[in-house]
Task: inverse folding
């Protein structure tokens, strides 16, 4: 069974670069990556915050948030 | 031919978590990951800075530095 990973982003340029280079580099044999655009799916912001996401882009993997560079703070996406 | 990725770290707890979860999640079919401990390999700090690394842990992939959370600023490793 694959491990679920969520890539949270907001469509910003830092986000797109991270998505195309880091999220896309994860091993597809071991991980299923869901891409969530928090600017469009505002109903998922609370879930991201609960997982520890403080800024986007971020990956949530194994219950931990990994912020990749800095595109925008999550507070502007609420 | 695989793409070379360098994971720069300093053995800190944030670094170890990122190493075991993000660096280890990259697709081994497409990427060769080199792990560089900048606390031990101080002669590689300049190279990391040239690649845009400002803090560790960080991945350098395709010429771009991706900082993963924040363990330590690179200036303390010089």
Result:
């Amino acid at each position: 069974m694959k491990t679920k990973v969520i890539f949270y982003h907001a469509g910003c340029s830092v986000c797109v670069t991270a998505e195309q280079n880091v999220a896309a580099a994860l091993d597809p044999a071991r991980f299923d990556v869901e891409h969530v655009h928090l600017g469009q799916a505002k109903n998922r912001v609370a879930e991201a915050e609960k997982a520890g996401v403080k800024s986007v882009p971020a990956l949530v993997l194994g219950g931990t948030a990994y912020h990749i560079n800095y595109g925008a703070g999550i507070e502007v996406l609420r």
Q: What stands out?
A: Chain A has a mean pLDDT of 97. The interface with chain B takes residues 5, 17-18, 21-22, 25-31, 59, 61-62, 64-69 of chain A (CB under 8 Å). Residues 13-21 of chain A form the longest helix (9 residues).
